[in-house]
Amino acid sequence: MEKLTIISHPVLQHKLTLLRKKETKSCEFRRLLNEISGLLAYESTKELALIDVDIQTPLESMQGQEVKQAPIIVSIMRAGNGMLDGLLNMLPFASAGHIGIYRDKFIQNTVEYYFRLPKEVAGKEIILADPLLATGDTALACIDRLKQYNVGKITMICILVSQQGVDKLHHFHPDVNIIAIGKERELNEDGHLLPGLGDAGDRLYKTID
Predict the structure, then answer these.
(1) If I label 139, which of 12, 149, 178, 199 is the partner at 20 to 30 A Cα–Cα?
(2) What single string gives the DSSP state of each residue in 140-164?
(3) Contact, 199 vs 34, CB < 8 A?
(4) CATH number of 4-49+67-205: 3.40.50.2020, 3.30.300.30, 3.30.565.10, 3.30.70.2330?
């Protein structure tokens, strides 16, 4: 069974439409991606384990609940960094890691240029963030690396995905959940999502030629 959840909430779809628009400026694009990521934090953490804790309200003692083990948010650089603040705002108890991997079209393979995780990641849940899952090559390389560290459950959150990328990821890692707010029609010859929203990194950081 495909572990893909597409969230069709009206507020998310409204923000996605604004994100897609060509005329949306970088500052607005960053704000929208931040807001969307914060909302996606709810869906990506709904199965976190809780523990009972004794607390004191201003009026009386009671038993509350807290997250048993904080997840680790891992950004796939550079576009994933645009999601990081939104996720950390909603999950301030989480720690964060970064993976820099890109697909080199000349050597037809992925290249890792940066990798940094918090200490003691074994067994801990991972929220892997990247706005777009297109060919799936970069996400696949990141998950391969994460599993070398014996991490726990991995949930990947995206804005948009392709069926091709989902199929490739689940072929090699059927245990990984994917959460997104849209599945695109197809990929073009350059591996870009259509209709898509363009290059998320370029739009985030205003590096479009």
Answers:
(1) 12
(2) HHHHHHHHTTT---EEEE-SEE-HH
(3) no
(4) 3.40.50.2020
* Cβ atoms of residues 66 and 53 within 8 Å: yes
Buried/exposed 151-181: b ≥16 CB within 10 Å, e otherwise: beebbbbbbbbbebbbebbbeebeebbbbbb
**Averaged pLDDT, groups of 10, the chain, 209 residues long:** 89 96 95 96 92 97 96 95 95 96 74 93 96 94 96 97 96 96 94 93 83
The DSSP bridge pattern shows strands 50-56 and 61-67 to be antiparallel
CB atoms inside a 10 Å sphere around CB 17: 13
